Amino acid sequence: MQSMDEIYQKYAQTVYRFILSKTQDQDVAEELTQETFYQAIRSIDKYDESCKISTWLCAIAKNVFLTYMRKHPGHEDIEDLAIPVDSAEQDVMKNADKMELFRKLHEVEEPYREVIYLRAFGGLSFREIGEIHQKTENWARVTFYRGKEKLRKEVETNE
Q1: What predicted TM-score, i.e. pTM, was given to this entire model?
Q2: Could you identify which of 75, 116, 126, 155 might form a hypothetical disulfide with 140, taking C-beta atoms 3.0 to 4.6 angstroms apart as the criterion?
Q3: What angle do CA 19, 21, 23 make, to 5 degrees?
Q4: Residues 37, 8: contact at Cβ < 8 Å?
Q5: Among 4, 1, 8, 5, which residue's Cα sits nearest to residue 33?
Q6: How many Å apart are CA 39 and CA 53, to the nearest integer?
Q7: Around Cβ 146, how many Cβ atoms within 10 Å?
């Protein structure tokens, strides 16, 4: 197995993007990324290599995030969130007001909302999203597409 330093160097950005997709706050995402790796170091002996290390780290990150949300229930800061440019997802976003788009995205049910966040704002591949959810890459693609269509209908309804 790799050393924790090598693991950190290789996966820190993936974990950070995953958490950023959930928090929409760069400072919080950095803090929770560090906490994730701290927890990983504490429980490295429990890693049984039954899944990829990135999947294991994202599972820890999800638990760290949930703990954070329990302690900070009103935290929903999207002010610093930038919408990616030149992405396949921009066709949904180009005609909508940013805040209205995020309001509508917040109303989309799970798992669609999380998959959209991970893909559009976390920059994760469909393969990575599938691994995080312990599903296939194809499941992630279909879920993203369906979520994007739900979001498109919501945006078009308000125009």
Answers
A1: 0.52
A2: 126
A3: 65
A4: yes
A5: 8
A6: 14
A7: 15
